[in-house]
Write a structure and sequence with these properties.
Strand order of the largest sheet: 5-6-7-3-8-9
Largest sheet: 6 strands, mixed
Structural class: alpha/beta
Number of strands: 9
Shape: globular
Mean pLDDT: 90
Distance between the termini: 30 Å
Oligomer: single chain
Helix content: 25-40%
Length: 249
């Protein structure tokens, strides 16, 4: 890659105090502007590695280097984790309210409005989470991650609990946001098809303790409905399936 690495793990491993080894020592670089997906079975250490990237956990071995403006990092969890008593706008504004030296309320409102526009929810600023569908709640969570204008977006299976139609729609929205905002994205999933559709690269991990068994570039002339049913898509999915099977051995 010609762009510099935003994240670089060198020999990073993780063993928990109870003795469980979540990650075998691994090396991985994520470059600026890439969409990198971590793919693997449940419990293989994908979330652990993502949390280490975010600074929410520390490796037991090895070194993690973060380059660039690491303050412009946002994390999207598996669940929307919205405050049920607060409006959509208040939920999205939360990271700005917690910022040290936070901007004035008018600027915060402007940033919230812009973030909601980017996920197509500008008309729902005054709604409450209970009034929204699951897909809309997840879009609120993404807006909350975008409101601080990050350059690095870490996402932990954000669409896993959604139906296929909603999931595909949000995949399309995410690709559009990543392109227009020039984001670097690390995305966790256990869906082969989602990994093929979204990614510039797919890092396939083995069963626990997680190790990298393949690092596969995904080349696609387009990312749309026709790609999902193309021979190229099927070929890439087969490559990932083979790598996952190898990781079980």
């Amino acid at each position: 890659m010609s762009t510099p690495p935003v994240l670089q793990a060198q020999g990073v491993g993780r063993r928990f105090p109870n003795g469980v080894e979540a990650l075998s020592p691994l090396d991985l670089a994520v470059h600026e502007g890439e969409f990198v997906t971590l793919l693997g079975p449940s419990g293989c250490g994908k979330t652990t590695l993502l949390r280490i990237f975010a600074g929410l956990d520390t490796p037991s071995s090895g070194v993690l280097r973060r380059q660039g403006d690491i303050d412009r990092l946002s994390y999207v969890f598996q669940d929307a984790t919205l405050m049920p008593w607060a409006s959509v706008a208040a939920n999205v504004r939360l990271p700005l309210d917690l910022e040290r030296g936070r901007p004035g309320m008018d600027i915060r409102r402007q940033k919230v409005r812009h973030a909601l526009e980017r996920v197509g929810l500008a008309d729902f600023a005054d709604a409450y989470p209970r009034e929204l569908s699951g897909g809309m709640r997840m879009r609120v969570s993404i807006a909350r991650a975008l409101v601080t204008e990050p350059t690095l977006l870490l996402m932990d299976e954000p669409f896993g609990a959604l139906d296929d139609i909603t999931r595909q729609h949000l995949d399309d929205e995410l690709l559009g946001l990543a392109a227009t905002q020039k984001l670097t994205v690390v995305f966790v999933t256990h869906s082969i098809f989602e990994a093929v559709y979204l990614s510039d690269r797919v890092v396939v991990m083995s069963a626990r303790p997680g190790r990298i068994v393949a690092d596969i570039p995904i080349k696609a002339p387009r990312r749309d409905a026709s790609f999902r049913v193309s021979p190229e898509f099927a070929m890439q999915a087969a490559r990932l399936q083979a790598a996952l099977l190898e990781g079980r051995q």
